[in-house]
Design a protein that fits this description.
Elements lengths: L1 H5 L1 H21 L9 E9 L5 E8 L3 E3 L13 E3 L8 H21 L15 H12 L14 H12 L9 E4 L3 E7 L9 E7 H9 L10 E5 L6 H12 L59
Antiparallel strand pairs: 1-2, 1-8, 3-4, 5-6, 6-7
Helix pairs in contact: 2-3, 3-4
Length: 303
């Protein structure tokens, strides 16, 4: 996606918002699910060889709230579950996503929000850009749906692979001779036994590929939409639990369980930068070095 490479902020934003709109629109259609759904989307930009491959990983509950409430304790709503092992048609999703994405991309182009350089400079000409999109309309776009997860632990394990990792882990780096870097990568086109391979790149090319995946300043990798949007998430989740007959989860703040995170003030351990809750991983006495995160002696002033 050369357009994304030179217009990351615009195209990444379109990718996430259009994917969410596609899912919410199709799910709301009575011919498919007929429910209001929520979802969490995570932007992922790299392939195993550090190539530029922007796409979104999305977690969606297996159902949603009914669209037309009537007066009652729960607002007259009920939970609409999807069919076992099936959520929405990937063919229908891919067609709508392709149309919406290309429409939004065209609008961004017409508003002057896209820029093109080097080998993509010709796309600045309207006729060339129109022909480029015309070719994209003729190919099938891929929406891949995985089977349902086996529980909340599996959901967290899946999300953590994309929310708390960078383009390449240290464990994949094998050698560096001062000029070239060798690392492990997975070739998904090869047969299972031959997928894992080694790649050696000049250091400049390795750094270039790594830096491709640095997000634009201020861009968020994780977004929540629909029922899980930040403004109404707590109320919607509470309603869904009542409709499904699921008990409320135990408090996670440590109140009453004797943990070291226990404190009367809920804001005592809030991160001053993002506002998220910080978790104590170790407590050590003054004058003692931390056990879990040793600090190199060269990184501190000995005085």
């Amino acid at each position: 996606m050369s357009n994304a490479y030179q217009n990351k902020a615009v195209v990444y934003d379109l990718l996430l918002k259009t994917a969410a709109e596609t899912l919410i629109t199709i799910a709301a259609d009575p011919k498919h699910l007929g429910a209001r759904i929520g979802l969490t989307a995570v932007l992922h930009t790299w392939g195993s060889a550090l190539t530029h491959h922007p796409h979104a990983h999305i977690i969606v509950p297996g159902g949603g709230l009914s669209p037309k409430p009537a007066p009652s304790e729960t607002g007259g709503q009920h939970w609409i579950a999807c069919r076992p092992g099936f959520f929405l048609s990937v063919r229908v999703l891919s067609r709508l996503f392709r149309r919406l994405f290309l429409e939004r991309l065209t609008a961004a182009y017409q508003a002057g929000r896209l820029e093109f350089f080097a080998d993509q400079a010709a796309l600045a000409e309207p006729a060339v850009f129109k022909a480029h999109l015309g070719a994209l309309r003729k190919v099938e776009w891929v929406v891949y749906a995985k089977p349902p997860f086996g529980g909340p632990e599996a959901v967290l394990a899946y999300l953590s692979r994309y929310t708390h990792r960078i383009a390449i882990a240290n464990s994949r780096l094998l050698a560096f001779d001062g000029e070239r870097v060798t690392f492990k990568w997975k070739d998904y086109r090869a047969k299972r036994d031959a997928r894992y391979k080694l790649m050696t790149l000049d250091v400049d090319e390795f750094i270039r590929r790594f830096l491709i995946h640095v997000l634009p300043n201020g861009f968020h990798r994780i977004w929540h939409y629909g029922l899980l949007a930040n403004a109404n998430r707590a109320a919607n989740i509470a309603l869904a639990r009542r409709l499904l007959g699921v008990p409320d989860p135990p408090p996670s703040s440590g109140d009453g369980d004797g943990t070291e995170n226990r404190h009367e003030d809920n804001q005592w351990n809030a991160c001053p930068c993002c506002g998220g809750r910080m978790i104590i991983i170790e407590t050590f006495e003054p004058g003692c070095q931390p056990r879990l995160w040793p600090i190199p002696s060269s990184g501190l002033d000995s005085s």
